[in-house]
Amino acid sequence: MSDIIQLLPDHVANQIAAGEVVQRPASVVKELLENAIDAGASSIKLIIKDAGKTLIQVIDDGKGMSVTDARLSFERHATSKIRSAEDLFSINTKGFRGEALASIAAIAHVELKTKQEQDELGTLIEIEGSTIKNQEMTVTPKGTSLSVKNLFFNIPARRNFLKSNTVELRHIIDEFHRVALAHPDITFAMFHNGSENFNLPVSNYRQRVVNIFGGKTNEKLVPVEEETEVLKISGFVGKPEFAKRTKSEQFFFVNNRFIKSAYLNHAINSAYEGLIKDGSHPSYFLNLTVDPKTIDINIHPTKTEIKFDDEHTLYAILRSSVKHSLGQFNIAPVLDFERDNNLDTPYDYKNKHASTPTVEVDRSFNPFQEDKSVSKSAGSSSTSYRKEPAGQWESLYVGLESKGTKTERNFSEVEYESQPEHTSLFTEDKQVESAQTTYQLHNKYIISTIKSGMMILDQHRAHQRILYEGFLKHLTVKEAVSQQLLFPLTLEFSSTEMELLQQLKEDLEHTGFIFSSFKDKAIEITGVPVNVPESEVSIILEQLISDVEQEVPDSNFSATDLLAKSMAKSLAIKTGQSLTPLEQEHLVNSLFACKEPSVSPTNRVTFITMSVDDFDKKFV
Length: 620
Ligand code: ADP
Ligand code: MG
Prior knowledge:
Blueprint: H1 10-21, H2 25-38, E1 43-49, E2 55-60, H3 67-72, H4 100-106, E3 109-115, E4 122-128, E5 131-138, E6 143-149, H5 156-160, H6 165-182, E7 187-192, E8 195-200, H7 205-213, E9 221-227, E10 232-238, E11 250-254, E12 257-259, H8 262-271, E13 284-289, E14 295-296, E15 307-308, H9 311-328, H10 371-377, H11 381-396, H12 406-410, E16 438-441, E17 445-450, E18 453-458, H13 459-477, E19 482-492, H14 495-511, E20 514-519, E21 522-529, H15 537-551, H16 559-571, H17 581-592, E22 607-611, H18 612-618
Helix pairs in contact: 1-4, 2-6, 8-9, 13-14, 13-16, 13-17, 15-16
The structure holds adenosine-5'-diphosphate (ADP) and magnesium ion.
Adenosine-5'-diphosphate (ADP) is lined by residues 31, 35-36, 38-39, 60, 62-65, 73, 78-81, 95-102, 144.
């Protein structure tokens, strides 16, 4: 049999390599930015069109390339950064594989312009799918400009698999953040479709973080500094009360390279133990410096995961330095971000004289008894005075997802400072105590009798469904009613958040929001949808941003639907909220007026039924 093995032609090999190096426009952005940094640039400009699908251009003022180097840079395994295998253990450049430019040139239209300082003229090279189309001398400033057009033009399958512009841009911005955060000593600018998204002057690290993530970030940063023999840590962690619902503000850099490490992330989380709620994520921007010999960055092609020689020690040092910082800046002991309002002294108490605390066991207390019994015993003022604090302490253990106790309702009349106003979505008319057909169980489920037996409804999910359908209607009919705010509300956001909000602006307006200004990392709101209390606005928008960010990897992203879902989620009555019989009834009726009452907007069951037969079976 004849021999069948052949060496692949270069352009095929390059295309295959490109599959590994270039997954999406953001991968190109990363490679080009890193090359600019390796070239010693002090100013780097990133220009993007159509989320990188049409154009990605990086212009730097670095050392540039000679004619020969310019030509060679597109060859595979052509690099100026390592010379021997030994060098692999002391890498201090971003790139070293010599693969990026060859890979990119295999799958796009590339134009390189480059000039070294001492040269009169620079070099222009144009390549399409690994084929050199043009090379000439050109007038160009010192440094390098590399444009990548029509990415994946020759691999239609890859091109078709690119996600929406929102998604691809999101990935590009993520890469940009990572690089810009690691190099506050370099000026960065980013433009998308002609408008400037970021302009980051040379600054200290704190300013760089703030310039990227918005002015409101400043107050939440706590510095972390530590230097030991094996590890130097510098940077910031976020105060616990600013923990986010997404992991979008978690950054580790090792020797100025962004890395992901579940293990080190765990170290940080454990430093925050007891300080933040489950499901929230602390922000951190931490630079770790270690001896390059003690890490192996060669284990992952896109190089965001690295291996440390002594992970355990790093873990311990990191955890204790973060803990120390949180403690030193008086954050740990305060612990009041989730403070129960019941701990605050209500205004009414001011005029009451202090009484010696007494311990009293209410032997007649019966948790299953109707509310009225409690108010009855409140007849004598001294009893009620002692009873109240007892109730408050009790509710301390109830926490946010309060299951609610009978006594809790007793205090609803006392207005505490800074108590969040609860949206009452139903007309409060407590006089009308109709014959009760619904019951609330554990402030979570509404039980209602139906012909065949009984129905149990999840109040939070049911209300989400009701609100969701309402918002969807407003969004499609575009006739939402707004309520004017007495004073305009100004909210600050980072540029990334602004970018997302900008895309949702029109839809938000259709739900009833009125914006009087929408620029420079801040929006001013003069009107909100009728059923949205002013105090909830920032929460709704933050939730929305976090929902969009999380939804991003999903290709069937629909802004309208997401907005309706997100707002419904934020505004729906929560588990733990007690409802009057009238509210319960209203909830049941509104749910069954919905088009799809049986599931929540996120496809979870809203109610179940149990027939008398089911009960009969249980009672045999
Ligand atoms: P690597 O960065 O791994 O060396 P690349 O394919 O990214 O591989 O780049 C190949 C070579 O081209 C680099 O080693 C460098 O010498 C040169 N080069 C690439 N981009 C630039 C730039 N912006 N300025 C100067 N030289 C560059
Ligand atoms: Mg490179």
